[in-house]
Amino acid sequence: MNKTIEFFERKGLAKIKEEDQGSQWYKDFINFIKKEQIFATLLTPSGTGEYDSRFDLSRICDFSELSAFYGLSYQYCYQVTILGLGPIWMSDNDSVKEKTGQLLKDGGIFAFGMSEKKHGADLYSNQMKLHKQEDGLYRGSGSKYYIGNANEAALVSVFGRIAETDEFVFFAVDPKHSNYHLKKKIHTSGVRSAYVGEFALDDYPVRESDILSTGKDAWDSSLSTVNIGKFQLGFASAGICQHAFYEAINHADERILYGQKVTDFRHVKQLFTESYARICAMKLFALRAVDYFRSSSEKDRRYLLFNPIQKMKVTKEGMNVIDMLLDVVAAKGFEQDTYMESAIRDIGMIPRLEGTSHVNMALVIKFMENYFFHDETYPEIPIRRDAKDDSNLFHQTTGKLSQVTFPNNLSCYEGVELPNVRIFLEQVKTFRGMLEKHPLTSQQQQDKAFMLHLGELFTLTVYAQLVLENAKLYDVNDDLVDYIFTFMIRDFAQFALSQLSSFEHTEGQTANFEQMLKRPKLNEERDEKIWIEDILPLKGEFKD
């Protein structure tokens, strides 16, 4: 991590921005990864790589946050490599695994051939095909779109179907082969230095030894790989927001308007305080989600709820933070030599380009009944920062979401008497009570728009749970926790009002939604204390 910081500090923001604006491939970053064995150390399971190599999710997420702090393009290369490695490490193909371990040592990056131009991530509509030949070989034909690292990947894990049986298949492809055709770079508004591309296989020869998995195993590894790789998105958003925060507060502190420092304006203080608190909440949720993911087992699959919230809610919170910081720096944020200018472009891509929010929301709402009404006792999950290989994540169980259960979701509020935490708890109890006493009609349940909208309230309920759990574990001061719940209350009320004004409800449901329209308890003394003790000391702590 320290070597990575040194690399980017030497490179400097000016060079990073120059490459970004010119859509230049960052060869120096790739060389650095090879020289320092970064990906080999972080992404090789224990027993396959060197002595200090392990697939440690906590450490892996740290690097996502760190690399995105300097530029999402760098984190994108890393995340796509994680995705490309997933089907390999999850397979029983020892020869490809051994080859992969060596390629990582050689500085290789990897790619994940999943989405297609016409179907996106709709796996059922996949048109990549393997055709069985009389000589025992297969021939692969088809194209893939929005594929990161497609230009220089050492191997590409490609998802498709076997033409004769229509069963799913994952197979490894060498981009240097003459039957692999790199069609083009897809020019996006963000991650310009990275490579997002389209490639096609034209009668590409595939041996049995190239096949990673078939049938249900291939399907399961596709979902499990996404669970690990796209989980990195929340940490990427947190990294971007932190860098932008430093740049914004440094800029504002040096500005005098109308004879007053910009940081002395009340509304500017409010914007900084809320953006700071939202970043803290993002990190508290994301880190707690890691604890559950690392501790998961066949009996405890709660991470399947927390992961899509990580991909959807944490990343959308990042958009909120950047919007607030942009309101502070205003025109300065659009100047081409600032980090903020790239943050504005990159932050909105994360919840959209990397898996649309409504897809994750559709998954989240499947857990709502079990989360509220079917309590089960689990052992306490501790902070998981231990240096441990997490190869258990290569054996996830997919499906059977109706069997995923949760403990009493209100237990995290026990012993917490902060005024805004208690107000938020009232909102959650009202929401739960509505679902119990005034259940959704069959028409409402079948209305996808209605359910996706309602899912915002459920998502915020779960988000608050993990934030509060982790605030206790990390001993976050009461003032900050209480402040975090001020915007939680406002957000909950806003979602409730939007639900109320957008759809038809029963009389009982309407009354409950109106009860959710609560206001936080304001406390100027608390806010000023956070401003003085937590935020002002950050001025000048990091400068480009």
From TrEMBL:
<keyword id="KW-0274">FAD</keyword>
<dbReference type="GO" id="GO:0050660">
    <property type="term" value="F:flavin adenine dinucleotide binding"/>
</dbReference>
<dbReference type="InterPro" id="IPR009100">
    <property type="entry name" value="AcylCoA_DH/oxidase_NM_dom_sf"/>
</dbReference>
<dbReference type="GO" id="GO:0003995">
    <property type="term" value="F:acyl-CoA dehydrogenase activity"/>
</dbReference>
<comment type="similarity">
    <text>Belongs to the acyl-CoA dehydrogenase family.</text>
</comment>
<dbReference type="InterPro" id="IPR037069">
    <property type="entry name" value="AcylCoA_DH/ox_N_sf"/>
</dbReference>
<dbReference type="InterPro" id="IPR006091">
    <property type="entry name" value="Acyl-CoA_Oxase/DH_mid-dom"/>
</dbReference>
<dbReference type="GO" id="GO:0005886">
    <property type="term" value="C:plasma membrane"/>
</dbReference>
<protein>
    <submittedName>
        <fullName>Acyl-CoA dehydrogenase</fullName>
    </submittedName>
</protein>
<keyword id="KW-0560">Oxidoreductase</keyword>
<feature type="domain" description="Acyl-CoA dehydrogenase/oxidase C-terminal">
    <location>
        <begin position="219"/>
        <end position="366"/>
    </location>
</feature>
<keyword id="KW-0285">Flavoprotein</keyword>
<dbReference type="InterPro" id="IPR046373">
    <property type="entry name" value="Acyl-CoA_Oxase/DH_mid-dom_sf"/>
</dbReference>
<dbReference type="InterPro" id="IPR009075">
    <property type="entry name" value="AcylCo_DH/oxidase_C"/>
</dbReference>
<dbReference type="InterPro" id="IPR036250">
    <property type="entry name" value="AcylCo_DH-like_C"/>
</dbReference>
<dbReference type="Pfam" id="PF00441">
    <property type="entry name" value="Acyl-CoA_dh_1"/>
</dbReference>
<dbReference type="Pfam" id="PF02770">
    <property type="entry name" value="Acyl-CoA_dh_M"/>
</dbReference>
<feature type="domain" description="Acyl-CoA oxidase/dehydrogenase middle">
    <location>
        <begin position="111"/>
        <end position="203"/>
    </location>
</feature>
